């Protein structure tokens, strides 16, 4: 039956974790996947999560959630994206479902796009998270690209981005990273977001935000929602994928949210029912545990404050590691500029290293990262930053 099946290519991100796990070297370093580690390189369960689990342990059952998931969790999640006192929430203008983290939210949206705008394409930034390509490919939505990153400045290519928005056919779908762009760590400024929003308004484009790192750009989830708020002020009907993988450290719990702002409550009911219809044959209904953890934290002011403190703590440790990595490289006398390590934000540093240089890091130094040169700063620690800097220096100096 299956002789014709060839092995699938390795995933460019999760394949790195597989290779790391298979390496017996005691010196190995994993700066591949975007998953937070403490300064000892250990995975972290947030204290607010531990506390929420203690609270829910006694009273939870294992019943199915509705197809759209926990509406309690969804409501709290919408407040994070659209604002605590958003009229959109009060007026029930948002169609939203619990999703299997950010990936699941993007996938349900991509299927919805295909079903209800069958001729549309999706414009994806260059570069983007590699899985975005897989998601819209499997949903059979044709992909176009728009320019985003400037390899020379290692910053935003704003002029080209604006040009591409302008030249795309009116009414196109654009995938935007709400904050802490993955993989580049380069976000538009507030002023630039305003111009992007204006241009998209003029062209009647549809903005779909992937917000996988809310809290990791500035250390404050509220501030990291600014792009969404700007677009809303301009009256865009937007879509948004939210994830608690990173900012609550709930990676394996697969908890997130997909929301679509609608014209009115009637439209929102219809859209939500269709989103549920897409979820039902795919996974029926989402898992319950992570949703309970999230709703418990966000609806308890003390736990929410603890969470905000812990998010900031994670973001600050990463910022500290950016400084340390740059300083180490400069102290080694690297002739290259490493300013971008501290200019970029979020979990990742888009180092500018070539695939060949990355291959050398792996084969000679047991350092694992994606071949596009992305370093997950969340995997850098005071214990490995010197080793990492030295290896980077060695492979980039000639
Ligand atoms: C990453 O970019 O490393 C994360 O979003 C994890 C993933 O699923 O790829």
UniProtKB/TrEMBL annotation:
Keyword terms of this UniProt record: Aminotransferase, Pyridoxal phosphate, Transferase
Domain Aminotransferase class I/classII large: 27-392
Any single GO BP term: amino acid metabolic process
PROSITE patterns xrefs: AA_TRANSFER_CLASS_1 (PS00105)
EC number: 2.6.1.1
Note: In eukaryotes there are cytoplasmic, mitochondrial and chloroplastic isozymes.
Membership in a protein family: Belongs to the class-I pyridoxal-phosphate-dependent aminotransferase family.
Name the UniProt record assigns to this protein: Aspartate aminotransferase
Source organism: Papaver atlanticum
């Amino acid at each position: 039956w299956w002789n014709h099946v060839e092995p699938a290519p390795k995933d460019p991100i999760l394949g790195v974790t597989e290779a790391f796990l298979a390496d017996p070297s005691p010196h190995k370093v994993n700066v591949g996947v975007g998953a937070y580690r403490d300064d000892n390189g250990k995975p972290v369960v947030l204290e607010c999560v531990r506390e929420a689990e203690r609270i829910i342990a006694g009273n939870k059952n294992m019943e199915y959630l509705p197809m759209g998931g926990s509406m309690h969790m969804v409501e709290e999640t919408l407040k994070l994206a659209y604002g605590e006192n958003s009229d959109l929430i009060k007026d029930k203008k948002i169609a939203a479902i619990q999703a299997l983290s950010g990936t699941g939210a993007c996938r349900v949206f991509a299927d919805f796009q295909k079903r209800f705008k069958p001729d549309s394409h999706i414009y994806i930034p260059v570069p983007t998270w590699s899985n975005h390509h897989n998601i819209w490919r499997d949903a059979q939505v044709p992909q176009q690209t728009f320019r985003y990153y400037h390899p020379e400045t290692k910053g935003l290519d704003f002029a080209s981005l604006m040009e591409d928005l302008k030249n795309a056919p009116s009414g196109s779908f654009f995938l935007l990273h709400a904050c802490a762009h993955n993989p580049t760590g380069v976000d538009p400024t507030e002023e630039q977001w305003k111009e992007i929003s204006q241009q998209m308004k003029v062209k009647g484009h549809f903005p779909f935000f992937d917000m996988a790192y809310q809290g990791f750009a500035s250390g404050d989830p509220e501030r990291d929602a600014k792009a969404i708020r700007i677009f809303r002020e301009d009256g865009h009907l937007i879509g948004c994928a939210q994830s608690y993988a990173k900012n609550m450290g709930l990676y394996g719990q697969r908890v997130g949210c997909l929301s679509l702002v609608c014209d009115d409550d009637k439209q929102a009911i219809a859209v939500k029912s269709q989103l549920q219809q897409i979820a039902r044959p795919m996974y029926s209904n989402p898992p319950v545990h992570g949703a309970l953890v999230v709703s418990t934290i966000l609806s308890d002011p003390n736990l929410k404050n603890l969470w905000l403190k812990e998010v900031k703590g994670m973001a600050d440790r990463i910022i500290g590691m950016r400084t340390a990595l740059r300083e180490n490289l400069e102290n080694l006398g690297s002739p290259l500029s490493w300013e971008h390590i501290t200019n970029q934000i979020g979990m990742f540093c888009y180092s500018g290293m070539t695939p060949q240089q990355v291959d050398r890091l792996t084969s000679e130094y047991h350092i694992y990262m994606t071949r596009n040169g992305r370093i997950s700063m969340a995997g850098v620690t005071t214990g490995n930053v010197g080793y990492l800097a030295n290896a980077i220096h060695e492979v980039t100096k000639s």
